[in-house]
Amino acid sequence: MHQDVLDLARLQFGLTAAGHFLFVALTLGLGTIVAVLQTRATLSRRPEDARQVRFWGQLYVINYAVGIVTGLVMEFQFGMAWSGLTHEAGNILGASLAVETLVAFFVESTFLGLWIFGWHRLGRWAHLATIWVVVLTAYLSAYWILVSNGFLNHPVGYGTEGGELVLTDPAALLPLAHVLAGALLTAGFFMAGVSAHHLFRRTAEADFFRRSLRTGVFVAAPALMAAAVSGGLQFGALASFQPMKAAVFQGQVAEIARVQAELAARFGPGDYMPSEGWTRGGGLVMLIAFGLMAYLCLAGVILAAFRKAVLRFRLWHLVLMASVPLPYLAMIGGWVFRESGRQPWVVYGLLRTEDAVSDLSPGTMRLSLAVFATLFLLLAVLNAWLLARHARRGPADTGLGRDERTRGEPLPAAPPPHY
Q1: Short-list 193, 199, 201, 197, CA closest to 219
Q2: Whole-angstrom distance, CA of residue 163 vs CA of residue 129
Q3: Strand pairing partners for 158?
C-alpha cells in the first residue's frame, strides 16, 4: 500500500467529516431551540412568539438542507477509500449506520417535511408534535453515529463470530451528552451573534432581537457547563483506554516511551505515537476556544439581565458577532484531538489505519480528494451565503409558515424601536 494513498485518504476523510459535523452541530442545537420556541408559542398563542419560530426555523431548515448533501456525499468514502474497515468491522459499522439511515434519518426527514408544509394545515398541537419528532429522531440519528465512532476509539461491547467483529453492547459507546451540549452551545452563539448584528444596526425589530439575543445567551451558558463536565469526564478516562494520546497531549516524554514499548511488545514492532502537532494542537485549540467562550458566557449572562445593555451596548454586539465561530473552532479542535490521537489505529488496538485503506493508486486518490474538497467548499460557501442572506433580512421577510391565503398582502409594520 502506497504511503501517499494512506495520507490522502486520511486527509480526505478528515476534511469531509469535519465539514459535515459543522452542519450537524448547528442543526441539532438550533432544531432543539426552535422546538422549545414553538412549544412556548403554542401555549401562549402570541404572534410575537410565532414570529420567533418562523425566523429561526427558516435558518434551521437552510442549514439542515445543505447539511444533508454533505452527509450523503461523505458516505461514499467508506466503500471507496476504506474497504478494509468495512470488511473487518462492517457488521458493527454497517448495522449502526443502517439504523441511523433507515430509521432515524428517514423518519426525521419525513416529519420535517410535515413541519415545513404543515403550517395552517395541521392543528397547532399536531404541528408542534412534528418538530419534536424531528428533534428526537435527530438525537437518535446522532446516537447511532456516535456508536460507530465510539467503537473506533474505544472498542468495547463487541464479540467475534467467524473471525469478524459484531456489536453486543451499543449502550456502552455513548458520548451523546457532550455532542448535544456542544450543539446547543453552537446554536446559542449563533442566535446571539445574528441578534447582535441587527441590534448593532439599530433595526426596527429591536424587541424581537432583544428577546432572541437573551435566548441565545441563556442557552449558551448552561450548554457550555454541560459540555465542560461531559468532556472532562471523558478526558479523565482517556489515560486508561488511550494512554498514548493522553501522554502526547500532556507532553510526558517518559510516559510516551513507556507506552510505546508496551504497545510494541503487545502488537509487534511499529511506531505507535500519533502526530504530536495534530494531537496537541487540536486539544489546545479546543481549550483556548472554551476559555474564551467561558468569559463571554459569564459576561453575557450579566449583561443580558439589563435591557439597555442588550439594546445599546454596541461593543458587546461586535464581540458577539465575532464570537460566532468559537464553538466551531472548539468542536473541530476536539474532533482533531480525538481522531488523530488514536493513530496508527482506525479501530484502536484491533485494526491499523494502513490495513483499512483501499488499494487505490495515488492518482485516483488525488482526484477523489480534489473533487470532495471542492464540493464541500462550495457547499460550505453556499450555506454561509444563504444563512447570512436570510438572517440579514430579518423576520419581516420570512417565508416559512406564511399563510398562502394572505400572500401578497402587506406585512404588518414592526413596532418602533426603543433604544
Answers
A1: 193
A2: 45
A3: 167
